[in-house]
Design brief:
By secondary structure, the protein is an alpha/beta fold. It contains twelve helices and 15 strands. Helix 1 packs across helix 8, helix 2 packs parallel to helix 8 and helix 3 packs across helix 7. The chain is globular. The structure holds pyridoxal-5'-phosphate (PLP). The site of pyridoxal-5'-phosphate (PLP) has 15 residues, from helix 3 and helix 4.
Length: 377
């Protein structure tokens, strides 16, 4: 085994596509089309084809995408938006910023995702939207969620920042990509995401072309026609250089998902028989793109294991250490529905192991043998 082990390895991935990436970036510089250059439109078109969706609107980052989605739905202060309590803060942050009320619900202990059953008791007369987060790379049970959203006139914004490329299969066999099932899908191209650029970037997608026009307008200062502003908007753009990078990398996304799945299968095979350690559950309805490979460590030993691994040169991360409802900023906004016991337990038990497209088998062998030695020692 050579070199230091990393959670994410962007350099090695770049080396393999260096010629195409360098050429794409150089082309933007040479044409000086830094803002809304042709690469932006081309990437939107390519992503639209990849996702098989009607419209793709690029924007500045994943958090902006979520905010733009909420703004386009024309919600009023006090309207409620249901979110998982076990997620990255961005999901709830934009709800609070817009004067809306985040209603936090617990998640399923196996998939880490919200379910239709958990959503039901959280629905009130003020509920206007749900933001399911396909956490760690696997779709939540969208068919059941779409059904209760329809029954209650609630919009769905899918947060696919960690699940771009995952495929969901409906009961009738129909397949759709994550983010193209609800009303609006949002994603992030943060460098460490499954499709990452070399800075910040994000996108929204929808099958509703009217809504697509509205999203584009909100992302562009609320204007359809230059200098004529219909609604309050924001300035959120994907840089042409980032679009050029993404155009190259999108061609490799399925191959990247495959590499991540190979790593996950290796971990599954070598870690599935350890008492006190639970490997991640696979949903029968969704493929997994393994943005994270997240194990659960029982008996209060998670932090000790993390320290043990660190001493052996193995990094690991805790996504996420504190539930949303225990965050200082969220104590006075929003409300919780339910006991939240799963979220609390997960915050104490989860540990994400290194996973990326460049992990070699000897490194994986070292990581899994070290974990075994902790439990056997
Ligand atoms: C990364 C992430 C975001 C935010 O994306 P940025 O591009 O960093 O703003 C939102 N939601 C989830 C679940 C994420 O993982």
């Amino acid at each position: 085994m050579t070199g230091t082990i990393q959670m994410v390895e962007l350099r090695g991935q770049y080396e393999k596509i260096k010629i195409d990436i360098d050429q794409a970036i150089l082309n933007v510089i040479e044409t000086s089309a830094f803002i809304q250059g042709p690469d932006v439109r081309n990437f939107e078109r390519d992503l639209q084809q990849y996702l098989e969706v009607e419209r793709v609107i690029s924007c500045g980052n994943g958090t902006d995408a979520l905010q733009i989605a909420l703004m386009a739905l024309d919600l009023k202060p006090g309207d409620e938006v249901i979110v998982p309590s076990f997620t990255y803060v961005a999901t709830a942050e934009v709800i609070g910023l817009l004067g809306l009320t985040p209603v936090m619900i617990d998640v399923d202990p196996c998939t880490f995702n919200i379910t239709a059953e958990l959503i039901k008791p959280a629905i009130s007369a003020k509920t206007k939207a749900i933001i399911p987060v396909h956490l760690f790379g696997q779709c939540t049970e969208m068919e059941a969620i779409v059904s209760i959203a329809k029954d209650n006139g609630i919009k769905i914004i899918e947060d696919t920042a960690q699940a771009l490329g995952a495929v969901y299969t409906f009961g009738n066999g129909e397949k759709k990509r994550a983010g193209t099932i609800g009303d609006i899908g949002c994603t992030s191209f943060f460098p460490s995401k499954n499709l990452g650029c070399y800075g910040d970037g994000g996108a929204l997608y929808t099958n509703n072309t009217e809504l697509g026009d509205r999203l584009k307008m909100v992302a562009n200062h609320g204007q359809r026609k230059k200098y004529y502003h219909e609604v309050l908007g924001v300035n959120s753009r994907l840089d042409t250089i980032q679009a050029a990078v993404l155009g190259v990398k999108l061609k490799h996304l399925d191959e990247y998902s495959e590499s991540r799945n190979k790593v996950a299968s290796y971990y599954d095979k070598h870690l599935n028989n350890i008492s006190g350690l639970t490997i991640p559950a696979r949903s029968a309805q969704s493929t997994h793109v393994f943005h994270q490979y997240t194990i659960k460590i029982a008996d209060g030993r998670r932090n000790e294991l993390q320290g043990y691994l660190k001493d052996k040169g193995i990094p690991s991360m805790i996504y996420y250490p504190l539930p949303l409802f225990e965050q200082e900023a969220y104590k006075n906004i929003g409300r919780c529905v339910g006991e939240m016991n799963t979220t609390k337990t997960l915050c104490e038990q989860v540990l994400s192991l290194p996973i990326h497209t460049e992990l070699a088998e000897d490194t994986l062998d070292y990581i899994t043998e070290t974990i075994k030695s902790y439990f056997n020692g």
